[in-house]
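To the structural biology subgroup,

Please find below the input and predicted structure for Alpha/beta hydrolase, which we are adding to the shared reference set this quarter. The sequence is reproduced verbatim from the submission form. If anyone notices a discrepancy with their own records, reply to this email rather than editing the shared folder directly, so we keep one authoritative version.
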Amino acid sequence: MESITTPAGITVAFDRYVGGDAGTVILVGGAFSYRTFPKMVELAQKLADEYRLTVINYDRRGRGDSSDSPGVYDVENEIDDIAALVEATGGSAALFGWSSGAGLALLAAASGRVPGITKVIAFEPPFVVNNEDFVPAANLDVTLHKLIAEDRRAEVVKFYMTHAMGMPRPFVAVMRFTPFWKSLKATAPATAHDWAVMGDYMRGEPLRAADWSDITVPTLVISGGKSGDLLRTAARAITAVLPNAQHVELAKLSHNPNIALLTPPAGEFLTGTANYAV
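Predicted structure (tokenized):
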């Protein structure tokens, strides 16, 4: 593990996988994710080993070995964390974001405050762009922040999964008896950061091209054919409003991805060896 301290005093912990001279990519995890999550580790290793990339796999604030800003949840702060990480790890990097991490990666690229971003991969950002599927309540953060402040972690997990992610209550109830429940509770307070990233874009409204027009770097949006309609619709919607983007849907992929299927399009895009133009 390595770490940096950002100008705001946040400790950002990360692992560095050095595969070769093909460039650097920073992995940006989603809700309940952390850098030692097995699929994040597998993705980092495969991108390094198979595509000669240097991969930075980090804990977003409030997760794993990174510090937090309790009660302060603002996407601009997480963009600052990414800017500090890019600067500390070489000054230029692509971003690979997963779920809400994809939303964060796109917002970082749109902000103009991370000049070292070279490319973006957005894997299934959970935008909610119509009223045909699940739409979270706009004031969801009121209850979420209260539960977090009271350190009711099990309730935070259940609330965020059902009210922000739209997962069926019986499915969430069963998860309490799985080995993953402990990890879910450990990262539960960080869901307030995920909502700060995604909340404005989960209101059942079309994405506005003006919000994303400053993302001029090549962007690849990936979705899975086995994912739900909401995520697949979101992938098409964000691709349509990005100035320089390509959408790839992989038939056998889901939001809980087979990393062996996810790695090739990502690695080929990042190294410029893809057979599609972006």
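Summary notes: The radius of gyration is 17 Å. The chain has eleven helices and eight strands.

Regards,
Lab coordination
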